[in-house]
Amino acid sequence: MKRITLLLLFVMSSLSAQTWNFSVGANTTNFVYTDSQGVNPTYLKPSSGFNMTLGYEKSMSRRFQYDLGLAYSQYNAVGDVQNIPFSYQTDFMGLSGGIGPKLEFRNDFTLMLKARGAVQKMINGNQFLQNHYEDLAEDEQFKGLRYFVGFSLELEKKVNSNLYVYTQYQHLDTIQFGTSSLNFVPSTVSFGIKIQSK
Fold first, then answer.
1. What is the pLDDT of residues 146-194, one digit of tens each?
2. Where is the signal peptide, in residue numbers (predicted)?
3. N- to C-terminal Cα distance for the chain?
């Protein structure tokens, strides 16, 4: 992860014209578990978590652009089985990117719709059950890389020639690889700023 971070920062710093974006928000995550019989139990309920991104954005043309950055997300869930409550608390970090069109409106508003992809890895996680915390680091359902695809819808407002503010809705879903039968389906609402430098 450290090598990926250094490589990403080097590539971004080598570009002449840069637009940096920083956002914070909240995830609401569905844990979709499929058991050995192909059934999706309903005892897992969505829970909220923190989301933060730092990235770089570039226009490919007047109507099309892409972004790439680092993302930190908390994917959490709660539930109960036979009146025994439990919860999952996980922290993920990785790379996220998007590409898509933008529509410019009056009063310096811009609407952007992007197809998105991400790859993330859990850096910390535990399950709380019967007053006991269980480390999820070696749990087959959580360890390893997780791949996400989805979309985002973003509304941006230009403040001045170098500063923008925006709000974004993002919906992702994991792509299943390997033996894990647990999917994460996070929906995120975030607010952020963009700074353009030359």
1. 999 999 999 999 999 899 999 999 999 998 755 558 889 999 999 999 9
2. 1-17
3. 28
Evaluate whether 164 touches 156 at the Cβ level (below 8 Å).
yes
Domain ranges of the chain: 24-197
Using an 8 Å Cβ cutoff, are 153 and 169 in contact?
A: yes
Residue 24: name the closest of 92, 93, 73, 69 by CA: 73
Task: Round to whole Å and give the CA distance between 116 and 57.
Answer: 13
Length of the chain: 198
Residues 6+ apart with CB under 8 A from 129: 84, 86
Give the pTM: 0.84
Element (H, E) at 95: strand 84-104
Q: Are 154 and 167 in contact (CB under 8 A)?
A: yes
Q: What is the pLDDT of residues 89-116, one digit of tens each?
A: 999 999 999 999 999 998 999 999 999 9
Instruction: Give the chain's radius of gyration (CA, Å).
Output: 19
Domain 24-197 in CATH 2.40.160? The answer is yes
Bridge partners (DSSP) listed for residue 104: 110
The burial class, CB within 10 Å (0-12 / 13-18 / 19+), for 177 is: exposed
